[in-house]
Amino acid sequence: MPQPILFDMDGVLLEGPGTHPQVYADAADAALDELEADPTPTQRADLRRNDLENVADHCEALGIDPARFWQLKERYASQGTHDRLRAGERGLYDDIDAIEALAERTTVGLVTNNRHETAEFVADYVGIDFEVVRGRDPTLEGYRRRKPEPDYIEEALDELGSSEGLYVGDSIKDVTAGLAAGLETAFLRRSHNRGLDRPAEATLELESLAALTDIV
Ligand SMILES: [Mg+2]
Questions:
Q1: Which of 2, 87, 108, 120 is most deeply buried (CB count within 10 A of its CB)?
Q2: Beta strands 184-188 and 108-115: pairing type?
Q3: CA distance linking residue 27 with residue 36, whole number of Å
Q4: For residues 7 and 168, is the Cβ–Cβ distance under 8 A?
Q5: Ligand 1 centroid from CA 150, angstroms
Q6: Is the pTM higher than 0.70?
Q7: Which NCBIfam families does the record associate with it (predicted)?
Q8: % of the chain beyond a pLDDT of 90
């Protein structure tokens, strides 16, 4: 099995496929408040979603800098996510013990589409000794570089000085990005992806992270 082993975060360590939409809604509201913007209901609804659609247009109409809005929204979303984790509103999967065990005998990393600030928080929160942690930059460009783009996986590999390895994720875009970065890939089954076919290009399919300790 090639090493290092890099792990996706949402749906692999953190329960559920991603950040709750309310976290982004609250973050957008906080950012708009801080910028003293007064959006229409439509503008607010668009800006609350976790995507870039209409962000530039709405910010221009509101007379605020889209880059500044986005950076604030990302920061508040990180705070909201960390609060939810600390409060136990979002849990961790039981089988992440396996990553901790692997970290004792090989190089492990965390590479996520989630915000870098949250990736750092989670790495610390779970207490696993990841040698590299990479999440998205809190910028508009950082958002565009998410998987299925291989960018953040490639940056993590660069940091480790490695050109091979295994990427473990719970979605098709993880397999696409891992492959594009030149890695083998493992598609991890969780309750939220039971209905998906195994991605044809995935090297492995895992029923649990525990299965990795037998393979590596
Ligand atoms: Mg995921």
A1: 108
A2: unpaired
A3: 14
A4: yes
A5: 14
A6: yes
A7: HAD-SF-IA-v1
A8: 97
Tokens 């962000």, residue located = 55
Q: Is the Cβ–Cβ distance between 175 and 197 less than 8 Å? A: no
**pLDDT level of residue 1 (50, 70, 90 thresholds):** low
C-alpha 128 to ligand 1 mean position (Å): 18
Residue 8 Cα to ligand 1 middle (Å): 6
Residue 121: name the closest of 149, 90, 154 by CA. 90
pLDDT in tens, 82-120: 999 999 999 999 999 999 999 999 999 999 999 999 999
Q: What is the mean pLDDT of the chain?
A: 97
Ligand 1: centre distance to CA 161 (Å): 24
How far is the centre of ligand 1, averaged over its atoms, from the C-alpha of 213 (Å)?
20
